[in-house]
Each structure stands twice: as structure tokens, then as C-alpha cells.
Amino acid sequence: MSLRHLPNAITGLRLAMAPVLFWLLWAGHYREALWVAAVAGASDAVDGVIAKRFGWQSRLGSLLDPVADKLLLGAAMAGLWLAQALPAWLVGLVLARDLVIVAGAAAWWRLAGPFSGQPSVLSKLTTGAQIALVLVCLVDLAGWDIPLRWRIEGLLAVALLTFLSGVDYVVRYGVRAWRHPRTPAE
Questions:
Q1: Does the first or last residue of the chain, that is N or C, have fewer Cβ atoms within 10 Å of its Cβ?
Q2: How far is the C-alpha of 61 from the C-alpha of 67, rounded, in Å?
């Protein structure tokens, strides 16, 4: 294997961590789940640094990286819901937003051609807040006491940002799609 493929291999390992993280949370192994989440987060940073430093970015990597991030975040949220650390409505809101984004990207591809999505600042803030909430919940479940206020404020911030980001995607890409000339994918 060429070292050029190392960032994609690291991303592939991160993809494989999603079901492991979910299972650890479902089985009540919270400290181990925290470690898997920490390794996954570190690997996300490492693969990006390696790809940029050596110019090893690829189309596959640009597609797999956000998929790995979303799968890990979704697995963490679903596992935390099973552990009763997050309410079902919040997990549903996060998953619904992600499904709307994926459905919109698929519709764009079908109606307008190849999709090149750029996350907005609001989307990046939303993802950051979701990750922070997951970490707060994992740290709390692993046995370190986290103030209840942090969890409540984190939950409300994630709910608001997730909703606003979902609306932003629908409006922004809806307008772009409306103005884009129709060139269906084959």
C-alpha cells in the first residue's frame, strides 16, 4: 500500500469504530466508549493533517471523511440515548437533520449533477456543539461528575443549533437548486 492512501485508511478505521462505539455504549462500557471516541477524534485530526501536509487529499477521502464523522456522531448519540444520557427527541432531531442533508444532496445530484457541498459556519458550530455534548455525556457516564447545568445548556445549544443549521441547509441549497440549470446525472 502506498503511503498516499494512509489518510483514507485512517478514515476507514474511523468508520469501523462507529459500531464499536455504539456497542460499548449499549453494553454499558462507558470508559471504553470514551477511549474509542477519543481515538476516533484524534484520528480525524491526524488524517486531515497528513492529507494536507503531504498533498494526499483525494475525492474518496473528501467523501469518506464526513461520512465517518456522521456515523460516529450518530452512533454516539444513539448509544447515549440507549444509556439514557440523551433524550430521544434530541437524537431524533440530529438524525432528522442529517437525513434531510443526505436527501438534499441526493436530490441535487439527481437533478443538477455532481454535488459539491461546503459546510457553513453554522454547520461547523453545530457539529462542534454536538461533539462537545457527546464528550460531556461520555465523561459523565465514565464516572467523572459533570455539572448538570453543563448537560442541560449543552442539550439546549445542540437542539437550537441543529434546528437552525437544518433550516439553513434547506433554504441555502433550495435557493441554489432553484437557480441551477438542470443537468440530470446519468
A1: C
A2: 10
pLDDT tens for 46-69 read: 888 888 888 888 877 777 888 888
C-alpha cell at 151: 448537560
Could you tell me which of 103, 156, 148 has the C-alpha nearest to residue 130? 156
Question: Distance (Å, rounded) from C-alpha 128 to C-alpha 72?
Answer: 13
Per-residue H/E/C for the chain? CCHHHHHHHHHHHHHHHHHHHHHHHHHCCHHHHHHHHHHHHHHHHHHHHHHHHHCCCCHHHHHHHHHHHHHHHHHHHHHHHHCCCCCHHHHHHHHHHHHHHHHHHHHHHHHHCCCCCCCCHHHHHHHHHHHHHHHHHHHHHCCCCCCHHHHHHHHHHHHHHHHHHHHHHHHHHHHHHHHCCCCCCC
Give the CA radius of gyration of the chain. Answer: 18
